[in-house]
């Protein structure tokens, strides 16, 4: 059927764009669009005109978590990695099985990690020379914790900032050689609580890309009010620790301090 | 939304896998798409979910955008609206944010709204902006309502009949007459 009547053509195209054609009528119309350029033009006309309806709405800023979730999906697409949200530790797991001593000893390996703090560094992560003092800030100010991560013997560097107020974590990589073979292993970032227990934060990106924004897993409020917290990195199977606790070699630990 | 040329460049760069361009595209479009999604879904959490789905679709399908099919803003709005319509059709909202919107599509004002758009850019992009709005004023109230409810709620003819408390045949002719008036006004 050919809609020779321009009014009928316009009518159907508008109803199609609005979503008023359903089922068979819609499918039939779509077949006609494919064959009739005038109909296609008419659909385009209404699409453009009806787009003026939302264009008249006042813009509303979505919360940051939307971009954080999108970034996480992007990472999956880019690196084919499975970003981690800290898995809940099973309450059934007997506490005695947790090798607390191992986590406590993470602090000892901190010395092998180059740790640089500060906002200038956060802004100019590639410059190793800039070193900023830790500034005294009020604890109730929503300042991010910042740290840069670098392992001896490899070139890659990461700038990490944790924003407890936004429940968000940002990671940027300055690429270079890596301490693990990324075809086989991933680097997983942890936060140690005041008891020395690790909480999974996510996987460190291993390739250059957009600054990653990931949701910051829930932490007890008391853990995120201190002036400094301790981060650690372990090497894990691809996709991250299967247990929710570190299973591989701990590559380093580092403080992250509140920055101005 | 920003001027069409910039949006188009960002979409085309995104299609080429440029994540930075995609991030800029998000910055440029998200508050506009979110306004539409919030208007349609009325719940912030649903609107956020829809925005995420919509932008991921943009990221994954940006190569399907072609400038000759329409303006980039229209393409983005269409993806967002279709995602919201899918959600609305899957489940009608039970409890809604009270946004103080009027029942047939006037502007919603949220206190978080921050109008930072560039009026110049907007004037460029929306050549003929307001034309539809002006033509809408020439419609009778039930005709206008039918069109707006179909646009924002995704109502079918029978749903419109039930929402407006009118017989199906009456609603169909409201829609038909409303669209015919719009067409002739928009052409004029």
Automatic annotation (TrEMBL), chain A:
Its main location: membrane. GO terms for cellular component: plasma membrane. Signal peptide: none annotated. The keyword Protease does not apply. GO terms for biological process: regulation of translation. It is found in: Cell membrane; Membrane. It comes from the Bacteria. The chain crosses the membrane at residues 103-122. It is a single-pass membrane protein. This is Regulator of SigK. It comes from Stagnimonas aquatica.
From TrEMBL, chain B:
The keyword Transcription regulation applies. It comes from the Bacteria. CDD domains: Sigma70_r4 (cd06171). One of its GO terms (biological process) is DNA-templated transcription initiation. InterPro entries: RNA_pol_sigma-70-like, RNA_pol_sigma-70_dom, RNA_pol_sigma70_r2, RNA_pol_sigma70_r4_t2, RNA_pol_sigma_r2, RNA_pol_sigma_r3/r4-like, WH-like_DNA-bd_sf. Residues 131-182 form the RNA polymerase sigma factor 70 region 4 type domain. One of its GO terms (molecular function) is DNA binding. It holds the Pfam family Sigma70_r2. The keyword Transcription applies. Residues 25-92 form the RNA polymerase sigma-70 region domain. Keywords: Sigma factor, Transcription, Transcription regulation. Belongs to the sigma-70 factor family. ECF subfamily. This is Sigma-70 family RNA polymerase sigma factor. It comes from Stagnimonas aquatica.
């Amino acid at each position: 059927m050919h809609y020779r009547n321009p009014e009928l053509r316009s009518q159907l195209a508008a109803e199609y764009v609005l979503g008023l054609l359903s089922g068979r009528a819609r499918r039939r119309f779509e077949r006609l669009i494919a064959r009739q350029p005038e109909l296609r033009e008419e659909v385009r006309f209404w699409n453009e005109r009806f787009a003026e309806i939302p264009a008249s709405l006042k813009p509303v800023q979505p919360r940051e978590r939307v971009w954080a979730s999108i970034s996480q999906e992007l990472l999956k697409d880019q690196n084919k990695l499975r970003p981690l949200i800290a898995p809940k530790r099973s309450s059934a797991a007997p506490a005695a099985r947790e090798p607390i001593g191992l986590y406590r000893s993470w602090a000892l390996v901190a010395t092998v990690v180059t740790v640089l703090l500060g906002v200038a560094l956060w802004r100019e992560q590639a410059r190793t020379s800039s070193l900023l003092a830790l500034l005294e800030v009020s604890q109730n100010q929503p300042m991010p914790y910042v740290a840069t991560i670098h392992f001896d013997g490899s070139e890659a560097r990461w700038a990490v900032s944790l924003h407890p107020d936004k429940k968000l974590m940002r990671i940027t990589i300055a690429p270079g050689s890596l301490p693990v073979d990324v075809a086989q292993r991933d680097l997983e970032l942890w936060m140690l609580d005041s008891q020395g227990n690790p909480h999974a934060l996510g996987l460190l990106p291993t390739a250059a890309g957009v600054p990653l924004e990931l949701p910051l897993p829930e932490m007890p409020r008391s853990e995120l009010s201190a002036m400094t917290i301790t981060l650690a990195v372990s090497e894990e199977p691809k996709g991250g620790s299967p247990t929710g606790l570190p299973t591989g070699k701990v590559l380093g630990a580092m403080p992250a301090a509140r920055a101005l | 939304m920003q001027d069409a040329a910039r949006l188009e460049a960002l979409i085309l760069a995104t299609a080429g896998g440029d994540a930075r361009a995609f991030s800029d595209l998000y910055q440029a479009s998200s508050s506009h798409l979110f306004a539409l999604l919030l208007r349609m879904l009325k719940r912030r959490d649903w609107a956020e979910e829809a925005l995420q789905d919509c932008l991921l679709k943009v990221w994954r399908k940006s190569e399907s955008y072609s400038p000759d099919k329409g303006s980039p803003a229209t393409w983005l709005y269409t993806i967002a609206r279709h995602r919201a319509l899918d959600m609305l059709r899957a489940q009608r909202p039970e409890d809604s944010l009270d946004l103080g919107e009027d029942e047939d599509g006037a502007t919603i004002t949220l206190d978080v709204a921050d109008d930072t758009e560039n009026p110049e850019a907007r004037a460029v992009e929306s050549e003929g902006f307001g034309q539809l709005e002006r033509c809408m004023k020439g419609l009778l109230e039930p005709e206008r309502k039918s069109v707006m409810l179909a646009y924002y709620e995704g109502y079918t003819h029978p749903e419109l009949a039930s929402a407006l408390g009118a017989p199906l045949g009456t609603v169909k002719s409201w829609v038909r007459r409303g669209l015919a008036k719009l067409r002739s006004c928009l052409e004029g």
